[in-house]
């Protein structure tokens, strides 16, 4: 089990998905048969993290709480945190400073989906880096659209450039960050960008300047999807549907992860399965027994 604390940033307005997110948080939208937030939550659970803070807007928090509760049904603990105004990804570390209490963390953006055989092993590798920071690089065909990492042969990051005209590599920085306990202090010291936000790239650069930032590269067998547009939201749903239909296995299933990890027992899983008795999801959970 990891000693890190987990963070899910599920705030923001979701304005790029309007009008469908004007009355519902983006991270509560369905990705095929599960709410979007199940997928980043599953990433933290696969890392072995059981103490998780979820950052939401004030108006959306009750809906998230109705969905996820306190996490005890999965053998985890959820702490609810509020983002009054979206002021950059690095703001999450200021909001969560008291929750983190000096511990290292793994933060995942609430609209990011990760998939791949060997993902738990990749996460475990990053989890062993107790000092400094680790980002996850994913090869893309159009790196000029992303924040991109340049790296040396040992996996040390040499540069991070936001939407570069001449990319130093084809590896985009995904929305998953493993940082040590100094992250809130570092976030407090950075200045807002021209758009008035505390940029995650600026926070990562503070680690880079100390030669304390590494990258875990996600190879051919991985998928990284974000769901910030209507098209990518549909693509993600179709991706999950195709995987599950072909394999007969769930993707992003907290109940299965908790059961396989020994965080819940047969009786607890049976209760969860009965909750979804009229669905294929419930049938799948019963099949695990």
Automatic annotation (TrEMBL):
EC numbers: 2.7.7.24
Ranges for domain Nucleotidyl transferase: 5-240
Cofactor: Mg(2+)
Superkingdom field: Bacteria
Gene3D superfamilies attached to this UniProt entry: Spore Coat Polysaccharide Biosynthesis Protein SpsA, Chain A (3.90.550.10)
Family: Belongs to the glucose-1-phosphate thymidylyltransferase family.
Name of this protein: Glucose-1-phosphate thymidylyltransferase
Organism the protein comes from: Neptunicoccus cionae
Classification of source organism: Bacteria, Pseudomonadati, Pseudomonadota, Alphaproteobacteria, Rhodobacterales
């Amino acid at each position: 089990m990891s000693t890190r604390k987990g963070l899910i940033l599920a705030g923001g307005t979701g304005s790029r998905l309007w009008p469908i997110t004007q009355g519902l948080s983006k991270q509560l939208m369905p990705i095929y048969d599960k709410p979007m937030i199940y997928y980043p939550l599953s990433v933290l659970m696969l890392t072995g993290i059981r103490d998780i803070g979820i950052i939401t807007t004030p108006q959306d928090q009750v809906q998230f709480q109705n969905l996820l509760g306190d996490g005890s049904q999965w053998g985890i603990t959820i702490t609810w945190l509020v983002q009054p105004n979206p002021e950059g990804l690095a703001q999450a570390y200021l909001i969560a400073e008291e929750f983190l209490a000096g511990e290292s963390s793994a933060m995942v953006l609430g609209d990011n989906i990760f998939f791949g055989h060997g993902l738990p092993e990749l996460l475990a590798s990053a989890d062993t880096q107790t000092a400094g920071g680790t980002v996850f690089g994913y090869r893309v065909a159009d790196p000029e659209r992303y924040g991109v990492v340049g790296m040396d042969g040992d996996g040390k990051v040499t540069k991070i450039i936001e939407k570069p005209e001449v990319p130093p590599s084809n590896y985009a920085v995904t929305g998953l960050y493993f940082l040590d306990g100094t992250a809130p202090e570092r976030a407090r010291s950075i200045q807002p960008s021209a758009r008035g936000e505390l940029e995650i790239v600026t926070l990562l650069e503070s680690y880079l300047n100390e030669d304390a930032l590494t990258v875990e590269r996600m190879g051919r067998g991985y998928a990284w999807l974000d769901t910030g547009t209507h098209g990518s939201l549909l693509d993600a749903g179709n991706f999950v549907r195709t995987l599950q239909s072909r394999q007969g296995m769930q993707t992003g299933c907290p109940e299965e992860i908790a059961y396989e990890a020994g965080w819940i027992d047969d009786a607890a899983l049976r209760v969860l399965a009965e909750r979804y008795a009229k669905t294929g999801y419930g049938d799948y959970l019963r099949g695990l027994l």
